[in-house]
Design the sequence.
């Protein structure tokens, strides 16, 4: 394990600890209040973009009836649900995991579901998906699947998450970009070269954060975000760069991604929470039919189910919170909150909420308990009223933290036995499919299916837990969902 500011828990817990300390196990996990607070801030700053980005995805798209939810209302509901559920994770789960609207899931809801029904109907399916997963948690099924995964596959999930989160950082900062044409899908910066002041700011921020991490500086990741944001504000004030995209179709390839780092004209705004409760639980079944609706719920459920598992394994391993079998003590509490978050996101019309990979930024600062989640959640609630301040931090300032956290996570690759191809090939597929398809669910599915196949064909089928056979079969359905849906619906 590689961390920035941690100390091994003492063999003898000091006497006289407060009830707060004992409840959250701060001392027991070798942490301090300072580390938890720093970790909470670091996690918030690396995922606060969702308050801006989710409204741009969900708030600007029209449903089948031509209705738009609106950016201000989606922004307010996004911050509210993230704040409440992250605090719930801190209080109930007692781990440093933060929750917010899941990227990828929100795009699926917007472009694949709301395009066929009303927003209320689409969000009703999200609520149903969350309720089904909650039932699976209460029945013990979700935790049983978590515990059935071989340790080395869990390690591969952690490594894959590391590469994935690093790629997210590089793409968000514009350091890696899609190509306009040709056989190569991605390239270095705009037009195959590094261009523009925002890219310079990202590189400087990455260098600052890397130096601080290498020197084991306390608060390295958070200090890196703050320092890079200040540099970005100064650069924008001097050069006047502007955003990378201005509606309806003006593109500036050397502009700032998502946020322009300038001091806002106003700091406080009044939130509009009119979207809360705006959903129809079974309206989607009337719109598209029972078979199509069930398949949509299944797709949402499987993606949500394993996105969270990948995050919990990866972040939990980096924080040294897993036991010798790769299990997270009290995982049922974490999974319960996460499952309820999926339903809550649908009920608030902001799409399914899930545990965020960016929680690793707080772990990198030394966070080990739910106290960090209390801090992150409180900051999201403040963001309800201070959304202009949230918009100060551009992707280029937050992304260096993701790249460095990705490095910390992939150091676990040394624990995989690459001499045993039956486990090494599934581990490899898990690791590479995640970043290359931009989906942790796809990586986990590729690992599970290939693991079951190689165990079967090598005469070691008995080594595979029965639940893994079931999950591998479900993933086969997941990967073939389009032809299956076409066959059943048509």
Sequence:
């Amino acid at each position: 394990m590689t961390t920035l500011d941690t100390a091994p828990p003492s063999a003898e817990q000091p006497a006289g600890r407060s009830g707060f300390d004992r409840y959250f196990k701060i001392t027991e996990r070798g942490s301090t209040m300072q580390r938890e607070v720093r970790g909470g801030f670091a996690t918030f700053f690396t995922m606060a973009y969702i308050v801006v980005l989710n409204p741009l995805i969900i708030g600007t798209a029209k449903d089948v009836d031509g209705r738009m939810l609106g950016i201000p209302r989606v922004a307010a509901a996004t911050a509210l649900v993230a704040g409440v559920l992250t605090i719930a994770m801190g209080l109930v789960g007692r781990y440093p995991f933060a929750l917010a609207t899941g990227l990828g899931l929100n795009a699926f809801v917007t472009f694949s579901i709301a395009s066929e029904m009303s927003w209320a109907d689409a969000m009703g399916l999200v609520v149903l998906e969350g309720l089904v997963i909650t039932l699976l948690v209460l029945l013990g099924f979700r935790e049983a699947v978590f515990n059935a995964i071989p340790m080395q596959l869990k390690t591969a999930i952690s490594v894959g998450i590391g590469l994935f989160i690093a790629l997210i950082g590089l793409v968000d900062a514009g350091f890696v970009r899609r190509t306009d044409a040709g056989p190569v899908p991605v390239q270095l910066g705009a037009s195959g070269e590094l261009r523009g002041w925002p890219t310079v700011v990202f590189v400087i921020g990455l260098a600052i954060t890397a130096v601080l991490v290498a020197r084991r500086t306390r608060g390295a990741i958070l200090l890196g975000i703050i320092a890079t944001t200040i540099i970005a504000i100064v650069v924008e004030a001097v050069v006047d760069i502007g955003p990378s995209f201005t509606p309806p179709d003006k593109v500036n390839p050397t502009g700032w991604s998502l946020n322009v780092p300038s001091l806002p004209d106003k700091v406080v705004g009044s939130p509009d929470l009119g979207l809360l409760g705006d959903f129809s639980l079974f309206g989607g079944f009337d719109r598209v039919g029972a078979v199509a609706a069930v398949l949509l719920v299944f797709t949402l459920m499987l993606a949500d189910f394993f996105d969270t598992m990948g995050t919990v394994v990866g972040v939990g391993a980096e924080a040294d919170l897993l036991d010798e079998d790769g299990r997270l003590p009290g995982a049922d509490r974490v999974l319960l909150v996460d499952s309820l978050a999926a339903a809550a996101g649908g009920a608030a019309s902001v799409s399914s909420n899930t545990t965020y990979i960016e929680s690793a930024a707080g772990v990198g600062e030394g966070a080990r308990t739910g106290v960090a989640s209390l801090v992150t959640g409180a900051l999201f609630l403040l963001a309800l009223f201070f959304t202009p301040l949230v918009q100060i931090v551009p992707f280029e300032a937050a992304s260096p933290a993701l790249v460095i956290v990705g490095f910390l996570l992939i150091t676990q690759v040394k624990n995989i036995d690459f001499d045993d191809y039956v486990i090494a090939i599934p581990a490899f597929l898990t690791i590479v499919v995640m970043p290359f398809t931009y989906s942790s669910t796809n990586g986990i599915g590729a690992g599970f299916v290939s693991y079951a196949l190689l165990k079967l064909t090598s005469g070691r089928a008995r080594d595979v837990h029965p639940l893994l056979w079931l999950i591998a079969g479900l993933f086969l359905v997941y990967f073939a969902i389009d032809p299956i849906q076409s066959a059943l619906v048509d």
Q: What stands out?
A: The chain is about 60% helix and 5% strand. Residues 19-172+286-388+407-489 form one domain. The mean pLDDT is 87.
